[in-house]
Design brief:
With about 140 residues, this protein is an alpha+beta fold. Helix content is about 30%, strand content about 40%.
Length: about 140
């Protein structure tokens, strides 16, 4: 099991985002597995000291590398994360630093499109009044 606090930099075609170790290692393992299939989407892959360098057949280039950072330098304040959850659904997560405030999954907004308005309202509240305002509204 990867260290949940470890952060990886995911660079795709020059754009770097931060992802959890779990997500980075899952992507690396999937690329390694894909490389040996008949319908491979991965042209080349190398792995060295936890760093993956992946070139896809469609020309995309992805590098996954551990990021050395001070845990106190983690994001603080309100932010939004877009990700896959454990069930394979896309999700929207509102954070106060690294603490989750709320999570909505694609399944929720597909079943009830009005959920999108709740997400937008919570995001607007978070960016204009901060994470405490979001938390107070959610606890009502």
């Amino acid at each position: 099991m990867p260290d949940e606090t470890k952060i990886y930099g995911r660079t795709e075609d020059g754009i770097t985002t931060r992802v959890t170790a779990q997500k980075a290692l899952a992507e690396g393992r999937a690329a390694m597995t894909d490389r040996v299939t008949d319908r491979a989407h991965v042209r080349t892959i190398s792995r060295d000291s936890g760093r993956y360098d992946i070139t896809h057949t469609d020309g995309r280039h992805v590098v996954l590398a551990p990021v050395d950072e001070d845990p106190h330098s983690r994001p603080s304040g309100f932010r939004i994360g877009f990700d896959d959850d454990a069930h394979g659904y896309d999700s929207v997560t509102l954070f106060d630093g690294t603490e989750e405030l709320a999570v909505w999954t694609q399944q929720e907004w597909t079943e009830d499109p009005s959920v999108v308005f709740a997400i937008l309202n919570a995001a607007t509240l978070g960016f204009t009044r901060g994470p405490d305002a979001v938390q107070a509204r959610l606890l009502r």
